[in-house]
Amino acid sequence: MNYNRYIDHTLLKQDASIEQIEKLCKEAIEHDFFSVCINPWYIPACKKFLTGSNVKVCTVIGFPLGSMTTEAKVFETKDAIAKGADEIDMVLNISQLKAKNLDYVVDEINKIKAECPNNVLKVIIETCLLSEEDKINACKCVSQSNADFIKTSTGFSTSGATVADVKLLRQHTSSNKKVKAAGGVRTHQDLVDMVNAGAERIGTSRGVDLIK
Quick one: DSSP state of residue 42? Predict the structure, then answer.
């Protein structure tokens, strides 16, 4: 199996340097990863470094808390697409999800998707902060929305993806949506287990180690 094509090769640290971003892109090309996932500031640089390759540029919106206004997230998305982002990973409004204001959550996802209709949109739900009921409600929101993926985690909270969560998201999200596991995928076996549980994309800063 070509596990390399599951990987969003990720560098989202606040202090990431341009040299580290260039190295990330070179590794993604060398190992034929699906994308690099970076903060919006580095979109133009990644487009340059990835010229001539089939590696996509993925960026994050409302990251990492998800607590920005919908209008702010929409602007971020519009700006990211204008700068060349191929895929958008947005953080949903976790407080509104937990308050069961599900119409708000779905509406926000759809307003963001409206700014990137021809681009993949992944919705980060931050599973470590959610009860099982919250997770199932998040699955319902993503299923009802125009998003393409449901994603476990930012990697910036108390913990990342688990196999159990990937299985739960796959079980409760409609079949036309995909699952991305992110955060805590540290070994090749973790990668295999996440894929076997139903993940169709893996977000990791350890892509090279996982493939090797």
Answer: G
Written as six digits, the tokens of 157 are 């909270």
- Tens digits of per-residue pLDDT, 7-32? 999 999 999 999 999 999 999 999 99
Question: Which residues does the annotation mark as catalytic?
Answer: 89, 151, 180
CA-to-CA distance for 179 and 195, rounded, in angstroms? 9
The tokens for 134 are 């919250």
Structure confidence by residue, pLDDT tens digits, 189-200? 999 999 999 999
Could you check whether the bond before residue 64 is cis, i.e. omega within 30 degrees of 0? Answer: yes
Q: What share of the chain is helix, strand, coil (3-state, %, to 5)?
A: 50, 15, 35
Place of tokens 């976790």: 94
pLDDT at 109: 98
SS3 52: coil
Angle at 163 between CA 137 and CA 33, to 5 degrees: 100
